[in-house]
Write a structure and sequence with these properties.
The structure is a single chain. The chain has about 190 residues and is mostly beta strands. The chain has four helices and 13 strands.
């Protein structure tokens, strides 16, 4: 996939029988994906134009031009939608970043040691997290806050990460701090 395109939304299940689908937007404004003109699929072979969109909980119920029944809507399930990179507005604040610019960057400790690679920036409802995958190890999360992520250097391809103590060695710490009375109460 070309780096000049940005993933902006993902089509989910059909909604009703008139060709509407549920769309999961990726961005601060859930309806912003409607503002960029035609949306392209990952392979670039298909372009979809938003005909209408309305918020419904965490999803946007959307109708695309030419999609008029449930069967056509079901065929769209799982498609990722992209826009050209240059369609995004310039960021005014030096502390603002597009998530796509951070993916794949090297996560480093304040001393410069490599921690891993940034693989995702999910938000499960309590704020954005940075998912870091160390080489040969399971990924972990830190909050996307100034305390945990004090420096982002896009030019160098590095993000400084302060790993909270509770993230390192959670299992060993949990075993040491376990109250044996809790185990007896659970068994009894």
């Amino acid at each position: 996939m070309s780096e000049d395109r940005i993933l902006i939304a993902r089509i989910g299940a059909a909604h009703g029988v008139r060709g509407e689908v549920r769309v999961k937007p990726f961005g601060d404004d859930p309806l912003s994906f409607c503002d960029y003109g035609p949306l392209e699929t990952a392979d670039g072979k298909r372009r979809l134009v938003v005909k209408s969109a309305r918020l419904q909980k965490a999803m946007v119920v959307t109708r695309f031009e030419g999609i008029d029944d449930r069967n056509a809507a079901e065929a769209l399930n799982g498609l990722d939608l992209y826009i050209p990179r240059d369609a995004l507005p310039e960021l005014d604040d030096e502390d603002e970043f597009y998530h796509t610019d951070l993916l794949g960057l090297e996560a480093v400790a304040p001393g410069g040691e490599t921690i891993g690679e940034i693989v995702a920036l999910p938000d499960f409802g309590a704020g954005t997290l940075v998912e870091i995958r160390p080489q040969g190890a399971q990924s972990f999360y830190v909050p996307f806050t100034r305390e945990a992520v004090p420096e982002i250097d896009l030019a160098a391809g590095k993000v400084t990460i302060v790993v909270p103590e509770s993230t390192e060695g959670d299992e060993a710490q949990d075993d040491e701090e376990r109250d044996p009375r809790a185990d007896n109460e659970a068994a009894g």
